[in-house]
Design a protein that fits this description.
225 residues; mainly alpha
Protein backbone atom coordinates (compact mmCIF):
# COMPACT_ATOMS: atom_id res chain seq x y z
CA UNK A 1 0.00 0.00 0.00
CA UNK A 2 2.80 2.42 0.92
CA UNK A 3 4.55 1.61 -2.36
CA UNK A 4 1.36 2.36 -4.28
CA UNK A 5 0.98 5.74 -2.52
CA UNK A 6 4.58 6.64 -3.32
CA UNK A 7 4.02 5.71 -6.97
CA UNK A 8 0.89 7.83 -7.22
CA UNK A 9 2.60 10.76 -5.52
CA UNK A 10 5.52 10.56 -7.95
CA UNK A 11 3.23 10.48 -10.98
CA UNK A 12 1.28 13.46 -9.68
CA UNK A 13 4.52 15.38 -9.12
CA UNK A 14 5.72 14.91 -12.69
CA UNK A 15 3.28 17.36 -14.34
CA UNK A 16 4.10 19.94 -11.70
CA UNK A 17 7.79 19.48 -12.43
CA UNK A 18 7.20 19.90 -16.15
CA UNK A 19 5.05 22.94 -15.54
CA UNK A 20 7.83 24.37 -13.41
CA UNK A 21 10.36 23.88 -16.18
CA UNK A 22 8.01 25.53 -18.68
CA UNK A 23 7.48 28.45 -16.30
CA UNK A 24 11.23 28.92 -15.89
CA UNK A 25 11.71 28.84 -19.67
CA UNK A 26 9.01 31.47 -20.15
CA UNK A 27 10.59 33.68 -17.50
CA UNK A 28 14.01 33.31 -19.10
CA UNK A 29 12.59 34.18 -22.50
CA UNK A 30 10.97 37.32 -21.13
CA UNK A 31 14.18 38.34 -19.38
CA UNK A 32 16.28 37.86 -22.52
CA UNK A 33 13.80 39.68 -24.70
CA UNK A 34 13.85 42.68 -22.35
CA UNK A 35 17.52 43.29 -23.16
CA UNK A 36 19.26 44.51 -26.32
CA UNK A 37 19.11 41.05 -27.90
CA UNK A 38 19.53 42.21 -31.47
CA UNK A 39 22.72 44.10 -30.68
CA UNK A 40 26.14 42.62 -31.19
CA UNK A 41 29.42 43.86 -29.75
CA UNK A 42 32.09 45.28 -32.04
CA UNK A 43 34.27 42.85 -33.95
CA UNK A 44 38.01 43.00 -34.55
CA UNK A 45 38.63 42.65 -38.30
CA UNK A 46 42.13 44.08 -38.55
CA UNK A 47 43.42 40.89 -40.20
CA UNK A 48 42.18 37.75 -41.90
CA UNK A 49 42.63 35.78 -38.67
CA UNK A 50 40.74 38.38 -36.67
CA UNK A 51 37.98 38.45 -39.29
CA UNK A 52 37.62 34.67 -39.13
CA UNK A 53 37.44 34.78 -35.34
CA UNK A 54 34.85 37.57 -35.52
CA UNK A 55 32.74 35.58 -37.95
CA UNK A 56 32.90 32.48 -35.76
CA UNK A 57 31.83 34.45 -32.70
CA UNK A 58 29.19 36.61 -34.37
CA UNK A 59 26.25 34.14 -34.24
CA UNK A 60 27.10 33.43 -30.59
CA UNK A 61 26.95 37.05 -29.44
CA UNK A 62 23.24 37.60 -30.11
CA UNK A 63 20.58 35.39 -28.53
CA UNK A 64 18.27 35.99 -31.50
CA UNK A 65 20.63 34.37 -34.00
CA UNK A 66 21.81 31.64 -31.64
CA UNK A 67 18.30 30.50 -30.65
CA UNK A 68 17.04 30.52 -34.24
CA UNK A 69 19.93 28.40 -35.50
CA UNK A 70 19.72 25.87 -32.68
CA UNK A 71 15.93 25.71 -33.06
CA UNK A 72 16.26 24.91 -36.78
CA UNK A 73 18.45 21.95 -35.86
CA UNK A 74 16.06 20.77 -33.15
CA UNK A 75 13.10 21.00 -35.53
CA UNK A 76 15.03 19.03 -38.15
CA UNK A 77 15.64 16.22 -35.66
CA UNK A 78 12.02 16.21 -34.46
CA UNK A 79 10.36 16.44 -37.86
CA UNK A 80 12.39 13.80 -39.74
CA UNK A 81 11.41 10.22 -38.99
CA UNK A 82 14.36 8.06 -38.03
CA UNK A 83 16.82 10.96 -38.11
CA UNK A 84 20.35 9.74 -37.85
CA UNK A 85 19.32 6.08 -38.16
CA UNK A 86 20.58 5.57 -41.69
CA UNK A 87 21.98 7.36 -44.70
CA UNK A 88 18.66 8.55 -46.12
CA UNK A 89 17.38 9.87 -42.83
CA UNK A 90 20.68 11.53 -42.08
CA UNK A 91 20.51 13.36 -45.42
CA UNK A 92 16.91 14.37 -44.67
CA UNK A 93 17.77 15.84 -41.32
CA UNK A 94 20.37 18.10 -42.93
CA UNK A 95 18.03 19.61 -45.50
CA UNK A 96 16.81 22.45 -43.31
CA UNK A 97 20.27 23.42 -41.96
CA UNK A 98 21.76 23.40 -45.46
CA UNK A 99 18.88 25.50 -46.80
CA UNK A 100 19.33 27.92 -43.90
CA UNK A 101 23.07 28.32 -44.47
CA UNK A 102 22.70 28.71 -48.25
CA UNK A 103 20.06 31.45 -48.01
CA UNK A 104 21.89 33.07 -45.12
CA UNK A 105 24.94 33.48 -47.36
CA UNK A 106 22.73 35.10 -50.01
CA UNK A 107 21.41 37.51 -47.40
CA UNK A 108 24.94 38.24 -46.18
CA UNK A 109 26.01 39.09 -49.73
CA UNK A 110 23.11 41.52 -49.97
CA UNK A 111 24.05 43.10 -46.66
CA UNK A 112 27.70 43.41 -47.62
CA UNK A 113 26.68 45.01 -50.92
CA UNK A 114 24.57 47.56 -49.09
CA UNK A 115 21.28 46.27 -50.53
CA UNK A 116 18.51 47.09 -48.09
CA UNK A 117 15.87 44.58 -47.04
CA UNK A 118 12.65 45.71 -45.35
CA UNK A 119 11.88 44.84 -41.74
CA UNK A 120 15.06 42.86 -41.04
CA UNK A 121 14.77 42.90 -37.24
CA UNK A 122 11.01 42.18 -37.17
CA UNK A 123 11.57 39.24 -39.53
CA UNK A 124 14.31 37.88 -37.26
CA UNK A 125 11.89 38.11 -34.33
CA UNK A 126 9.18 36.43 -36.45
CA UNK A 127 11.58 33.60 -37.26
CA UNK A 128 11.93 32.83 -33.57
CA UNK A 129 8.16 32.84 -33.08
CA UNK A 130 7.44 30.61 -36.07
CA UNK A 131 10.31 28.15 -35.66
CA UNK A 132 9.67 27.96 -31.92
CA UNK A 133 6.04 27.05 -32.58
CA UNK A 134 7.08 24.45 -35.15
CA UNK A 135 9.41 22.88 -32.57
CA UNK A 136 6.80 23.03 -29.83
CA UNK A 137 4.16 21.45 -32.05
CA UNK A 138 6.64 19.03 -33.61
CA UNK A 139 5.12 20.05 -36.92
CA UNK A 140 5.87 18.06 -40.06
CA UNK A 141 5.79 20.04 -43.29
CA UNK A 142 6.62 18.97 -46.85
CA UNK A 143 10.38 19.20 -47.35
CA UNK A 144 10.15 21.95 -49.95
CA UNK A 145 7.85 24.07 -47.82
CA UNK A 146 10.03 23.65 -44.72
CA UNK A 147 13.20 24.52 -46.64
CA UNK A 148 11.57 27.60 -48.20
CA UNK A 149 10.34 28.71 -44.77
CA UNK A 150 13.67 28.47 -42.95
CA UNK A 151 15.50 29.75 -46.02
CA UNK A 152 13.32 32.84 -46.15
CA UNK A 153 14.06 33.62 -42.52
CA UNK A 154 17.75 32.85 -43.06
CA UNK A 155 17.90 35.56 -45.70
CA UNK A 156 17.19 38.17 -43.02
CA UNK A 157 19.58 36.63 -40.50
CA UNK A 158 22.31 36.65 -43.15
CA UNK A 159 21.58 40.24 -44.09
CA UNK A 160 22.01 41.25 -40.46
CA UNK A 161 25.37 39.46 -40.35
CA UNK A 162 26.59 41.10 -43.54
CA UNK A 163 25.34 44.59 -42.71
CA UNK A 164 27.08 44.50 -39.32
CA UNK A 165 30.52 43.91 -40.86
CA UNK A 166 32.66 46.91 -39.82
CA UNK A 167 33.83 49.20 -42.59
CA UNK A 168 37.49 48.43 -41.80
CA UNK A 169 37.07 44.95 -43.25
CA UNK A 170 37.09 46.19 -46.82
CA UNK A 171 39.69 43.77 -48.13
CA UNK A 172 38.24 40.74 -49.88
CA UNK A 173 40.22 38.10 -47.90
CA UNK A 174 39.01 39.58 -44.61
CA UNK A 175 35.41 39.68 -45.87
CA UNK A 176 35.57 36.06 -47.03
CA UNK A 177 37.09 34.99 -43.70
CA UNK A 178 34.32 36.75 -41.78
CA UNK A 179 31.57 35.21 -43.92
CA UNK A 180 33.18 31.77 -43.75
CA UNK A 181 33.48 32.07 -39.99
CA UNK A 182 29.82 32.79 -39.33
CA UNK A 183 28.75 30.14 -41.85
CA UNK A 184 30.79 27.53 -39.98
CA UNK A 185 29.46 28.71 -36.61
CA UNK A 186 25.90 28.57 -37.95
CA UNK A 187 26.32 25.00 -39.18
CA UNK A 188 27.83 24.02 -35.83
CA UNK A 189 24.78 25.45 -34.04
CA UNK A 190 22.48 23.55 -36.40
CA UNK A 191 24.33 20.30 -35.68
CA UNK A 192 24.15 20.98 -31.93
CA UNK A 193 20.41 21.46 -32.31
CA UNK A 194 20.08 18.22 -34.26
CA UNK A 195 21.98 16.34 -31.55
CA UNK A 196 19.84 17.87 -28.80
CA UNK A 197 16.62 17.26 -30.72
CA UNK A 198 17.53 13.62 -31.35
CA UNK A 199 18.07 13.03 -27.64
CA UNK A 200 14.91 14.90 -26.63
CA UNK A 201 12.80 13.08 -29.22
CA UNK A 202 13.68 9.74 -27.67
CA UNK A 203 13.89 10.59 -23.98
CA UNK A 204 12.06 13.86 -23.20
CA UNK A 205 9.69 15.00 -25.96
CA UNK A 206 7.84 17.21 -23.48
CA UNK A 207 11.05 19.18 -22.88
CA UNK A 208 11.46 19.75 -26.62
CA UNK A 209 7.95 21.20 -26.66
CA UNK A 210 8.78 23.42 -23.69
CA UNK A 211 11.97 24.65 -25.37
CA UNK A 212 10.02 25.43 -28.54
CA UNK A 213 7.51 27.41 -26.51
CA UNK A 214 10.34 29.32 -24.85
CA UNK A 215 11.87 30.26 -28.22
CA UNK A 216 8.46 31.37 -29.51
CA UNK A 217 7.88 33.51 -26.41
CA UNK A 218 11.29 35.06 -26.89
CA UNK A 219 10.30 36.01 -30.43
CA UNK A 220 7.10 37.58 -29.13
CA UNK A 221 9.14 39.49 -26.57
CA UNK A 222 11.35 40.93 -29.32
CA UNK A 223 8.31 41.97 -31.31
CA UNK A 224 6.79 43.95 -28.46
CA UNK A 225 10.04 45.26 -26.95
Amino acid sequence: MAGFIRSVSFQQAMPRGRAGVAAHLAAAAALLASGPALAHPGHDVASVGASLASGLLHPLTGADHLLAMVAVGVWSALAVRGAGAGGGAGGGVLRLPLAFVALMLVGAALGLAGVALPAVEPMIAASLLVIGLLVGLRARLPAGVAMALVGGFALFHGHAHGAELPASAGALPAVLAYVGGFALATMALHLAGIAAGSVLRRHAPWLARALGAGVALYGVGLMVA
